[in-house]
């Protein structure tokens, strides 16, 4: 605003405006507010300019990661983008907005891409904090049908395109549900499931095992790998190279859930050979034989 605008709006003299602006300048200089006081003497304009609350490269990185997940609808991605850009000063905001527009133009979310996730994330966060017992209808991938279940949400995490909810109930302490497959959800008032302390989830350890599907039992296995070792190690956080072979292949020991690791191993084709346990070796053989039979028909 100009001095004249202040005079007209607040019915004060120019000298009063100058004294007040000087006080405001000193106050802002002593504060930690994310604004810069500016006085343009030639035009006699006083202004507050926003400064960066995050660095431009930080906001750009976060936006690129969000687009890479493909988890949010385009509308929600734009909402998140506006919020992150709002943390930048105007000059940096313009540059980051332009740089992030390239990927946004061809952004394609997974699934139907129309379901809003942010309200569900907010509501489940409240239920997790309050340890609320829920009755819900959930569509399972096995049969595509909605089933009514009861449980207490204890954790929320993201992995491979989707957000997941970890539920505790009396039969399954760590049941995994995909957030976008919940239908009707109601808090239960007449029955409360008590969350046992010894069944609480260790999120730090559990998040290292959420990279694959969670069906089947958790198991430790070894396999021989003929591709770049770091590719497998990155995909399987709970893994390590235990031996290097003469042909430069490696033997890797890892931990995972049986269903997820089975699909990953089969997808590696001739680059991998499961060594232990025998139950996993047998499962891989069955899947590969069934796949070959499809081509023999």
UniProtKB/TrEMBL annotation:
PROSITE patterns for this protein: WYL
Show the taxonomic lineage. Answer: Bacteria, Bacillati, Bacillota, Bacilli, Lactobacillales
Task: Tell me which domain of life the UniProt entry assigns to the organism this sequence originates from.
Answer: Bacteria
Q: What protein name applies here?
A: WYL domain-containing protein
Signal sequence span is none
WYL domain boundaries? 128-186
Matching InterPro entries: CBASS_pafABC_assoc_protein, WYL_dom
């Amino acid at each position: 605003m100009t001095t004249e605008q202040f005079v007209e709006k607040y019915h004060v003299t120019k000298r009063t405006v100058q004294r007040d602006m000087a006080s405001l300048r000193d106050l802002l200089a002593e504060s930690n507010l994310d604004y810069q006081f500016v006085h343009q003497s030639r035009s006699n304009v006083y202004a507050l300019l926003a400064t960066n609350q995050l660095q431009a490269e930080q906001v750009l990185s976060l936006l690129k990661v969000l687009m890479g997940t493909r988890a949010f609808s385009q509308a929600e991605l734009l909402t998140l983008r506006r919020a992150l850009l709002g943390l930048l000063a105007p000059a940096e905001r313009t540059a980051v907005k332009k740089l992030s527009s390239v990927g946004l133009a061809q952004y394609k979310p997974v699934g139907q891409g129309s379901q809003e996730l942010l309200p569900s994330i907010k509501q489940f966060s409240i239920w997790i904090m309050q340890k609320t017992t829920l009755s819900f209808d959930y569509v399972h991938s096995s049969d595509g049908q909605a089933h009514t279940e009861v449980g207490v949400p204890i954790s929320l995490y993201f992995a491979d395109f989707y957000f997941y909810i970890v539920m505790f109930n009396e039969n399954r302490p760590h049941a995994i549900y995909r957030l976008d497959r919940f239908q009707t959800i109601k808090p239960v008032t007449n029955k409360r499931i008590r969350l046992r302390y010894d069944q609480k989830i260790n999120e730090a350890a559990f998040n290292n095992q959420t990279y694959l599907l969670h069906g089947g039992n958790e198991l430790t296995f070894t396999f021989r790998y003929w591709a770049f070792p770091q590719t497998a190690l990155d995909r399987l956080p709970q893994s390590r190279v235990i031996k290097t072979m003469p042909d430069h292949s490696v033997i890797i020991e890892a931990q995972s859930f049986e269903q997820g690791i089975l699909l990953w191993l089969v997808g590696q084709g001739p680059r991998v050979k499961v060594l232990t346990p025998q139950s996993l070796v047998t499962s891989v053989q069955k899947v590969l034989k069934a796949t070959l039979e499809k081509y023999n028909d």
